[in-house]
Design brief:
The structure holds 2 protein chains of 2 kinds.
Chain A: E1 7-20, E2 23-36, E3 40-44, H1 51-58, E4 67-76, E5 79-80, H2 86-95, E6 97-100, H3 104-107, H4 114-126, H5 130-143, H6 149-152, H7 162-174, E7 180-184, H8 192-209, E8 212-217, H9 220-226, E9 229-234, E10 237-243, H10 244-249, H11 254-262, H12 292-297, E11 310-314, E12 317-320
Parallel strand pairs in A: 3-8, 3-9, 6-7, 7-8
Antiparallel strand pairs in A: 1-2, 1-4, 4-5, 9-10, 10-12, 11-12
Helix pairs in contact in A: 4-5, 4-7, 5-7, 7-8
Chain B: E1 6-19, E2 24-39, E3 44-48, H1 55-62, E4 70-75, E5 78-79, H2 85-92, E6 95-98, H3 102-105, H4 112-122, H5 128-141, H6 158-170, E7 176-180, H7 188-205, E8 208-212, H8 216-222, E9 225-230, E10 233-239, H9 240-245, H10 250-257, H11 288-292, H12 298-301, E11 308-312, E12 315-318, H13 326-334
Parallel strand pairs in B: 3-8, 3-9, 6-7, 7-8
Antiparallel strand pairs in B: 1-2, 1-4, 4-5, 9-10, 10-12, 11-12
Helix pairs in contact in B: 4-5, 4-6, 5-6
The chains are: A alpha/beta, B alpha/beta.
C-alpha cells in the first residue's frame, strides 16, 4: 500500500480462484499488503480465510490445475512474480524466497537421508559439487542448532522428533540465504516448549541472515510474540492491518476484536463465560458480495451491499470500512 | 468427607515392543508409569504435558479403553481396573469420553440421530418414541437444531461435530467425562463456543471432567486443579491458581514460560528447554527432566523415590532435587511419605 523501494514484497489486489464443481470460486479476493525489508509480517485468520492460498500464490505453488491467479501483482524486489515464467519462478523459490510448511514430515522425503535432502538445494541452486554441497549442508544443520550435525546428515526423517524435523525444513528453506521467508503455520504441529525453541530460532536466523518474513498462523499469541506488522484476513479479504503493537492495543474491526476476546488467556477468570463469535465462516460458494463478517453475524440487511473499502484510520492502521463492523 | 468419584493409584500402562524374527518382546513403552490422582464429584482436573508424555493413554485407561498393566482405578468406590468388558458394560454409562477430532470419532455412515441414539440401544433404554424425544432434547441442549438429527456428521463443521460428540457423551447422564483435547482441532472463534458449553453443562449436570489438553491457557480456564505430566509421571499437582501463580517444578515453570503472551510489548524471561521429551521406551534411570537439563544433581536421583510430596497444603510436587528449589527440597526430604532410598 505504501509505494517505495523499502518493501521487499508488495502484494497488490491479488485474486486467486479455484475451479470447482460449483464454478470458479475466489479464495483470495483482492488482497493487498506489503512486507517492509527486514520485518516480520503476520497473516492471521481462521481456517478457510485464504491466508495459506495467499502464501501459495506468492510463490505460485497453487494446486494444479484447479488454482489460478486471476489478477493483481506480486512484486518481489520490483519483479512481478505473477507474470514471471516458470523457469524464473523456480529460481526464486528456494533461492530468493524460502518456504516452510506446517507439517515437517510431509515436506521431507522419507526415503532419503537428511544429508541428501539438504545438500540437494545447494546442488540445484548453487551448482556445487557433491562434496561441497554436503559440507554446506552440514554447516546449515549447525546453523539451525542441530546437535552433532555430521551424524544427523546420515539419518532418515523418521529418526528425528517433530521439532528436529522442522529444523531440517528450516535449514532447507534457508540454505540459499533467501531474502524472504514464508512460514505457513511453522509451529502448529509442535508442543509449546518446542514452539518456543523454533520461534526463537527463526528470530535469531532472521537477524543473522538479514531476511524478511511472512508468518502465517491462526495463533494470536505467536503473532504478538514475533510480528512487526499484522494482516487480519476474513473470508478471502483483508479486514484489518496495523503494526502488532497498535493492533493488540487498539483493534478496530469487529472480527479482530471478536478473535482477541474469545481466547482465554492466563488472566481470564476461570470458568467465566468467554466471548464468542456466533455462527461460522461461510463456504467459498456462499460468500456475499458485501461485508462478509456481516454475513456471518446475520446482519446482511444492515451491512453494506457493496464491498467495504479499506480505510487508513491512522498512519499504517487500515480497517475495512463497514458501518456495522467498524464504528469509530 | 465425601469420597472421590475417581481414584487412581500407582497406575502403570506399558506397551510391549516386539522385534526379531519370532516377535519376542524386546522392550516396553512405559506410557504411564506410576500415576496416582483423584477427581471429586463436580470437579475438573486438568492434565497437561507435551505430546508423548502419556496424557491421552492415561485418559483412555481411566475409561477402560485400555487395560492397565498394574495399579488400581476406583470409580465411585468400585474397582474397575481389571473388570471384564461384560462386567464393565453396565458401569460404562457413568464415564464417557470426548475425542479430539470429531470427524474421526463419528461414523460417517450413521445419521446424527443414530449416533446419539446408539448408547440407549446398547443399554436397552426406552422405546422408540422416548428415544426420539431424548435425542431431540440432547441436540437442543448442545445447541444444534432438531433438524440436524436426520443429517450425517460430515455435513457439519468441526465445531458442530464436536457438539454431536458431546451430545453422545451426555446421552447416558454420565458422572465423569474424559475430554481428550476437545478444542484443539477447532478454530479460535469456535473454541470459545465449545468451552462455554462444557462449563455450562458441568454446572447443570454436576459433571466431573478430566480435561486433557496441551494449551495451558485453555486448561487454566476450565480446571479446578491441574496435574502436569512428564514422561509417564505426574510431576506437579495443585489448584489451577497455585500451578499458574506459584509453579514449584522446573518443568511446569518452563511450560508456562513457553506460552506466547498476547501483549507484543511484554518482555519475559523465557526458559528455553533444550531437546525433546526422551523416549518412554528407555527412560533415564533417574529424574527424566533432570536428565534432559543435564542437571548436576542427576546422579542423586538414580534409583531414588521421586513420587509426589505435599510441599504446602494441597500442592504436590515430585521429590526431585533437580527440579525444585533448595527450600522445597528440604521440606520434601522430611516428608514421611517419602520413605525411599533418598540419601
Amino acid at each position: 500500500m505504501i509505494p517505495g523501494t523499502e518493501n521487499i514484497l508488495e502484494v497488490e489486489n491479488l485474486i486467486t480462484s479455484f475451479e470447482t464443481e460449483r464454478g470458479l470460486l475466489r479464495a483470495v479476493d483482492q488482497v493487498s499488503f506489503t512486507v517492509p525489508t527486514g520485518k516480520t509480517v503476520g497473516i492471521v485468520g481462521e481456517s478457510g480465510c485464504g491466508k495459506s492460498v495467499t502464501a501459495m500464490s506468492i510463490v505460485r505453488l497453487l494446486p494444479q490445475p484447479a488454482g489460478k491467479i486471476l489478477g493483481g501483482h506480486v512484486r518481489f524486489k520490483g519483479h512481478d512474480l505473477v507474470r514471471a515464467s516458470d523457469k524464473e519462478i523456480q529460481k526464486i523459490r528456494g533461492g530468493g524466497i524460502g518456504v516452510i510448511f506446517q507439517e515437517p514430515m510431509a515436506a521431507l522425503n522419507p526415503l532419503h537421508r537428511i544429508g541428501k535432502q539438504v545438500s540437494e538445494v545447494f546442488r540445484i541452486h548453487k551448482n556445487l559439487s557433491k562434496k561441497e554441497a554436503w559440507d554446506a549442508a552440514t554447516e546449515m544443520l549447525d546453523l539451525v542448532r542441530i546437535p552433532a550435525p555430521s551424524r544427523r546428515m546420515m539419518d532418515y526423517p523418521h529418526h528425528l522428533s517433530g521439532g528436529m524435523r522442522q529444523r531440517i525444513v528450516i535449514a532447507i528453506a534457508l540454505a540459499c540465504r533467501p531474502s524472504l521467508l514464508i512460514a505457513d503455520e511453522p509451529t502448529t504441529a509442535l508442543d509449546v516448549t518446542v514452539q518456543a525453541q523454533i520461534l526463537d530460532l527463526l528470530d535469531r536466523l532472521q537477524a543473522e541472515i538479514g531476511m524478511s518474513t511472512i508468518l502465517i498462523t491462526h495463533d494470536l499469541g505467536v503473532i504478538a510474540e514475533t510480528c512487526d506488522e499484522v494482516v487480519v484476513m476474513y473470508a478471502g479479504r483483508v479486514v484489518e492491518q496495523a503494526s502488532a503493537e497498535e493492533l493488540f492495543a487498539n483493534p478496530l474491526h469487529a472480527y479482530t476484536r471478536g478473535l482477541l476476546h474469545s481466547i482465554p488467556t492466563l488472566e481470564t477468570p476461570s470458568k467465566s463465560v468467554l466471548n464468542t463469535i456466533p455462527g461460522m465462516v461461510a463456504g467459498l460458494a456462499d460468500y456475499s458480495h458485501g461485508c462478509r463478517f456481516c454475513q456471518r453475524m446475520g446482519r446482511m440487511d444492515r451491512g453494506t451491499r457493496e464491498r467495504p473499502v479499506l480505510l487508513e484510520v491512522s498512519t499504517g492502521h487500515w480497517v475495512e470500512n463497514c458501518p456495522e463492523c467498524y464504528k469509530p | 468427607m465425601t469420597h472421590p468419584l475417581l481414584s487412581v493409584s500407582d497406575l502403570r500402562i506399558h506397551f510391549p515392543v516386539r522385534g526379531g524374527v519370532l516377535l519376542k518382546q524386546t522392550a516396553s513403552v512405559k506410557a504411564v508409569d506410576g500415576v496416582s490422582l483423584e477427581i471429586a464429584p463436580g470437579e475438573t482436573l486438568g492434565l497437561v504435558g507435551e505430546s508423548g508424555c502419556g496424557k491421552s493413554t492415561l485418559g483412555k485407561a481411566i475409561v477402560r479403553l485400555l487395560k492397565p498393566t498394574s495399579g488400581r482405578i476406583h470409580f465411585d468406590q468400585s474397582d474397575i481396573s481389571h473388570l471384564s468388558q461384560r462386567k464393565l458394560r453396565p458401569l460404562r454409562r457413568d464415564f464417557q469420553m470426548i475425542f479430539q477430532d470429531p470427524s474421526e470419532s463419528l461414523d460417517p455412515r450413521m445419521s446424527v440421530r443414530a449416533i446419539i441414539e446408539e448408547p440407549y440401544l446398547i443399554h436397552a433404554m426406552g422405546n422408540r418414541q422416548e428415544r426420539i424425544k431424548w435425542v431431540n432434547a440432547l441436540l437442543d441442549r448442545v445447541g444444534l437444531p432438531a433438524a440436524s438429527a436426520e443429517r450425517y456428521s460430515f455435513e457439519f463443521s468441526g465445531g458442530q461435530r464436536q457438539r454431536i460428540g458431546i451430545a453422545r457423551a451426555l446421552a447416558l447422564k454420565p458422572k465423569l467425562i474424559v475430554c481428550d483435547e476437545p478444542v484443539s482441532a477447532l478454530d479460535v472463534s469456535v473454541q470459545s463456543q465449545i468451552l462455554n458449553l462444557l462449563v455450562e453443562l458441568q454446572k447443570d449436570f454436576g459433571l466431573s471432567y478430566l480435561f486433557i489438553a496441551h494449551d495451558l491457557a485453555v486448561v487454566k480456564h476450565v480446571s479446578d486443579r491441574v496435574a502436569v505430566m512428564y514422561l509417564g509421571k505426574i510431576v506437579e499437582l495443585a489448584s489451577a491458581e497455585q500451578i499458574y501463580q506459584n509453579p514449584r517444578h522446573t518443568y511446569t515453570k518452563a511450560l508456562l514460560s513457553a506460552i506466547p503472551s498476547h501483549d507484543p510489548k511484554a518482555i519475559r524471561n523465557k526458559i528455553l528447554l533444550e531437546g525433546d521429551v526422551p523416549s518412554p521406551i528407555d527412560p533415564p534411570a533417574g529424574s527424566a527432566f533432570g536428565h534432559r537439563m543435564n542437571h548436576p544433581r542427576y546422579e542423586e536421583t538414580i534409583g531414588a523415590d521421586l513420587s509426589l510430596g505435599e510441599v504446602s497444603p494441597n500442592h504436590w510436587v515430585a521429590a526431585d532435587p533437580c527440579c525444585v528449589s533448595e527450600e522445597d527440597w528440604r521440606i520434601l526430604r522430611q516428608l514421611p511419605t517419602l520413605a525411599g532410598p533418598v540419601n
